[in-house]
Write a structure and sequence with these properties.
Elements lengths: L16 H28 L5 H29 L4 H5 L1 H24 L6 H7 L12 H17 L3 H7 L1 H8 L2 H14 L1 H5 L2 H30 L10 E5 L8 E6 L2 E8 L2 E6 L13 E3 L2 E3 L6 E2 L16 E2 L1 E4 L2 E4 L13 E2 L23 H27 L7 E3 L5 E8 L5 E3 L4 E6 L3 E2 L11 E11 L7 E6 L5 E4 L9 E15 H7 L9 H9 L4 E6 L5 E7 L18 E10 L2 E5 L6 E2 L3
Parallel strand pairs: 15-18, 22-24
Antiparallel strand pairs: 1-10, 2-3, 3-4, 4-8, 4-11, 5-6, 6-7, 9-10, 12-17, 13-14, 13-17, 14-15, 15-16, 17-18, 17-19, 20-21, 20-23, 21-22, 23-24, 23-25
């Protein structure tokens, strides 16, 4: 036999030349996409944090590959020249899972780690508003989709296909459509609500329409095959077609008796077998007779056309059907014989009427594709890679704007000043005041207990965000063990306060640490879970108030009696709010005093 048949034993996967080329193109294209997305993003948006670009780069790449996976199947039905891509589709699926896993891991570490609860607990506990469409916890949808991808990747080997059985294995892998739906909802309820990106919305919509259209077109084609059942004639036989209409060494597929039947013409003979390959339910009728055997186009399993049995020593069998040729017409009886039953072929003459369609046929395990098909595949793959890179470039250039902020990660400096503990931990110097937080998603209140009004020296990392309305907002991420008292207060204890009167403001609650520069963007629905963890861990909550001309002011948020509101505002973080309260100036900071039970969600 010239083709590789199913092995009698499980063996390690052998990468032939075509597999290496396929995987090299896949890996190279993925790395190039990520390099362009992250590298160009860093050049275009120097204020963007590297973690944000990595999370977005891996997310968009995984979504692009998933669309490609979903398009390959119907494309193969519409044009057999795409079949070589189908042969290694499992590799593409496993790669998509790994890329999605990196995206998920980055997101969990960035938004949920280093807090007051474990990251996985935070993933499910930070937002439980499942009854609200606007506030729905979209991260859960992405996590469920990733679980489906994991199951599919873990069962991709033929070992699982054999032991689970083809129907069960196929059912599991049909869950890819559920995962796709979960991911579409994940993007719509997450990124699209947070950024309102028209380009991302259009790209997602075009992708969905493309996948749906290809499946509908393939379904229409399959339905036409199902309806093309000829009028029954003598002895219950069904007329299939003219002999000349069946390509030499190829097949015509019909639907009869509730089953699809593949009728092959070869060497002046006509034989019919079930269209369903025993390996993975592949379409035998889309294959070709090679070395006297029907060869499945998906993975190269082979069967003798007259008996439906695999050549020795293999034991796979498919049902066979009786055929006749009357007046140049092919007829088949829809009653199947038991799998492996030998049925004498019907004779159709030495030439069958003409040579028929000589389209090139290629299965991925062959060492080299035919020249014409090889050139076509090269152009097709190059076009797919170019389209993916173009889509990535468009998404890079149309990302929402990033704030002018910075976090001097890894750069620790010495600072001296006076500690204040209201409205939040603050280091006040003669020139500048700094809000204070601890590393990770933690506040500094416990570390400065008893130090209010005292002069201290400490080590910290600068966090800063530009603000046109009130000048730059500054914060220090302090190493708690570095705080040392140096004497009595160098400045008066407590900043001068002024009551500016009642106000009614619209905006959203953020954690001041990420918003000022540790994350960029550090607000909105996508950042919600991270903000919940930071505020829960003690970072000062802030209210970002928006005015009518698009300006913003960052107000520290306390209760009407000046108490911390960290725990009380957790359910309201990143929600559109209207807050009525009193505005107070305390030194360099504006403070909004208000009660959470008076906050109005989604004001009109």
């Amino acid at each position: 036999m010239g083709a590789v048949q199913v092995s009698l034993r499980y063996q390690a996967v052998g990468w032939n030349r075509q597999k290496r080329i396929y995987d090299s193109v896949l890996a190279g294209g993925a790395l190039l996409y990520l390099a362009i997305f992250v590298g160009a993003g860093a050049l275009l948006y120097p204020a963007a944090t590297a973690e944000t670009l990595m999370i977005r780069g891996f997310a968009t790449l995984a979504l692009l590959l998933l669309h490609l996976i979903l398009c390959i199947g119907p494309l193969c039905r519409l044009n057999p020249r795409f079949l070589p891509l189908l042969y290694n589709r499992r590799h593409l699926g496993v790669a998509t899972f790994l890329i999605a896993l990196v995206h998920g891991a980055f997101s969990i570490v960035q938004f949920h780690a280093l807090g007051d609860v474990s990251p996985l607990v935070s993933l499910f506990a930070s937002n439980t508003r499942y009854a609200s469409l606007a506030s729905f916890p979209f991260e859960t949808l992405g996590f469920l989709a990733l679980l489906i991808f994991f199951v599919m990747a873990a069962t991709s080997h033929d070992f699982w296909l054999h032991n689970l059985s083809a129907p069960v294995w196929k059912t599991i892998h049909m869950l890819v459509y559920l995962a796709y739906g979960l991911l579409v909802a994940h993007v719509i309820l997450g990124a699209l609500q947070a950024d309102r990106s028209l380009v991302l919305a259009v790209a997602l919509g075009v992708g969905f329409v493309l996948v749906a259209s290809l499946h509908l077109m393939a379904g229409v084609k399959e339905r036409q095959v199902d309806r093309a059942v000829a009028t029954a004639v003598e002895e219950g036989f069904i007329e299939v077609s003219a002999v000349k209409a069946i390509p030499d060494q190829r097949a015509k597929v019909i639907s009869a008796g509730g089953e699809r039947i593949a009728i092959f013409r070869y060497d002046g003979k006509i034989s019919a077998v079930s269209n369903v390959c025993r390996h993975q339910n592949g379409p035998l009728g889309e294959g070709r007779i090679i070395d006297g055997c029907i060869t499945c186009p998906w993975h190269g399993y082979q069967y003798l056309p007259a008996s439906g049995t695999s050549p020795a020593p293999f034991t796979d069998k498919v049902p066979t059907f009786q055929t006749k040729v009357i007046g140049g017409k092919v007829l088949v009886h829809p009653r199947a014989f038991p799998a492996g039953t030998t049925v004498s072929p019907a004779l159709c003459g030495p030439d069958g009427g003409q040579a028929g369609n000589q389209d090139e046929f290629y299965v991925g395990y062959f060492p080299k594709p035919p020249p014409l098909l090889g050139r076509w595949l090269t152009r097709a793959v190059a076009g797919i890679v170019a389209a993916a890179l173009a889509i990535g470039a468009v998404l890079i250039f149309h990302q929402p704007p990033f704030a002018d902020s910075k976090f001097e990660y890894g750069m620790v400096r010495d600072y001296s000043g006076t500690i204040e503990d209201w409205p939040a931990p603050i280091l006040r110097t003669p020139d500048i005041s700094f809000l204070l937080v601890a590393p990770g998603k933690h506040g500094l209140s416990s570390a400065i207990s008893g130090l209010a009004g005292k002069s201290v020296r400490l080590k910290g990392t600068l966090i800063e965000r530009a603000n046109r309305q009130q000048g730059p907002d500054r914060m220090l991420e302090v190493l708690p063990e570095s705080i040392q008292m140096t004497g009595t207060a160098a400045l008066p204890n407590g900043a001068a306060s002024a009551d500016l009167g009642p106000v009614r403001l619209r905006g959203e609650i953020v954690d001041s640490k990420c918003y000022l520069g540790v994350m960029n963007p550090g607000n909105g629905k996508v950042h919600r879970d991270c903000a919940v963890r930071c505020i829960s861990g003690g970072a000062p909550p802030a209210f970002v108030a928006h005015d009518a001309v698009g300006g913003t002011r960052v107000l520290l948020l306390t209760g009407s009696d000046g108490r911390p509101l960290n725990r009380e505002v957790l359910p309201l973080v990143a929600e559109p709010l209207e807050i009525a309260g009193r505005l107070v100036r305390s030194g360099a900071y504006l403070v909004l005093k208000a009660e959470p039970d008076q906050f109005v969600r989604n004001p009109e």
